[in-house]
Amino acid sequence: MNDRINQAQTAIYEQLGKEKLHKALRQMHLIRQFEEGAEQAYMRGLVHGTMHLSIGQEASAVGVGIMLESGDYITSTHRGHGHCIAKGADPKFMFAEFFGKDNGYCRGRGGSMHIADVASGNLGANGIVGGGLPIAVGAALALKQMKKPNVVICFFGDGANNEGAFHESLNMAAIWKLPVVFVCENNKYGMSTSTERSTAVKNVSQRAQAYDFPGVTVNGNDFSEVATAAGEAIERARLGGGPTLLECMTYRHRGHSKSDRNRYRTKEEIESWIARDPIQIFQANLLAAGLIQESEVAAMLKSVEDEIEAGINFAKDSPDPKVEDLTSFVYTNKTSETSNV
Amino acid sequence: MSNETRELSYSQAIQEALGLAMERDERVFLMGEDIGVYGGAFQVTGDLIHRFGEDRVMDTPISELAGAGVAVGAALLNRRPVYEFQFSDFAALAMEQIVNQAAKIRFMLGGKTSVPLVMRFPCGSGTGAAAQHSQSLESWFAHVPGLKVVQPSTPADAKGMLLAAIEDPDPVMFFEHKLLYKMKGHVPEGYYTEPLNQAKIRRQGSDVTIVASAIMVHKALEAAAIVEKEGISVEVIDLRSLRPMDYTTLIDSVCKTTRLICVYEGTKQFGIGTEVAAAIVESAAFDRLDAPIIRLGGADCPLPYNPELEKAAVPQVPNIVEAIRRSVQGRI
Fold first, then answer.
1. Which segments of chain B are extended strands (E)?
2. CATH number for the domain including A34?
3. A333 belongs to a structural domain
4. What ipTM does this complex have?
């Protein structure tokens, strides 16, 4: 590691302090084990539909999430389990949602692709690529109207950067100088199509130039790089400086979804990214810096395993929604519902 | 001028409602293309920017998709956005945010939040604006659970229903027929709301029911006055709300008159009248029908430019008169 990176890492570690660093590492492990637990549950037929796992992308979710305060919001994507946990959601209610249960975050109506926890500031994952971008801008407009000192983090993938919604949203956020940070998790592929084949610019962050605000690309598998850049962007947004586009270069170890047969990437490429596992990098750095001990890591892993196991059991034991409540929640007031004729 | 006789145009009534809503609730704000100093393409927002400033009467870039989505995001944080589409046709650019997001978020999140927004859509033909500025697309939206879709036909309803829409916790699609903007009518002063789920009987009758919406209500009333001289008594129902639809009022009326004509400007197939007709034949009114149901809707083509072709593309008073005669004679 060169000195400049070492210095930057030291600075963010000092800024966050041991407690937050431990929290971040634990959240990364929690996300990883949550995803693995969800995957196993899917294999065993406990989860139906599909899901998009973020294994390998934990540093971008947590590196950004750890810099947020209560009152800040996020919008998320179809690969959103990590964002949800990083914003403070409880995995047991997430599992309950994946299992379609009535006490899941969305009462079994949304599932993996619409996981949300408005109470903790997560306005929701989104099944539409680019769907969350205008919503994030609207939430940021609301914060500005209410004169709140808060920000909105808009997570999206590299695939969204070619949607019209991306360009319209970045422009609007720029002209109104809104407190929003656009965080692109660039995992190199929109489903099977690589960014080289889909995107005219080398880095998604270059797109920010067109809207006259900063665009930064960081190693998205390095917690400290993500946290440092996110911290600067969030601070800028909080102080009225407007949006930033932060691109985190990362990789999903698993396929796009459960139907993916990995025909578009090589075994060597996947292995090269697994060798750069964000959790292992962060954990090794904390150990090397003496900010965590092996015994603490072991205890942390045990508590994460317990939490995941308890969460899955909670979900299994939870009640299903009632079929007679099928059309509940379409409208806020009952009188709005169409009566059957 | 006394409250009983005060008249406003349809667009003035809407502007008055917007002003009252903004005075009453600081969360209400307007967004749209050229709604600020320009006053809106149809002068509906007019001078509101001078009363409320550019932070509450916000000109947006020409970005309908993000504009609609910004309204959704602001609504999720409990603001009350009212987004004006310059023409309802441009909603095609924003359907993702309206249909996949605004309509579904409350349901997808298990009722944990609501999306209290209003989208205003100037719609309809008759202005020579041709195929991309003249459509009546309201039934697209009425097909989507989670949206409310209303279409007031009078200035008083426009004001009261817009105030109700802004108060409403769910996304309301508010359709304003452009030919109604200059129509004048009595409008009560002050703040009041009209329900978003009730049809209104505009004219009582006993021989045939016409169910119409927006400008077609007025054409139906004209036709009813013409056939009255022939001894035919027509009941005219103004739908006002397409979603939810007030089926009870429609069924009761058809049970009484035993005949039904649906008049609407949108394309006839899969249109408003199709839904009304289906609801009637599924109901107790089916056994009472003495004549086939007649639907008069838009022709099966895009709206043309030439004025004669444009008129021919949507139901006109003579078409309605002829349909009434056919209906009472039991012929189709």
1. 7-9, 28-32, 57-59, 80-84, 118-123, 148-150, 172-177, 184-186, 200-203, 208-212, 234-238, 241-243, 260-267, 294-298
2. 3.40.50.970
3. no
4. 0.96
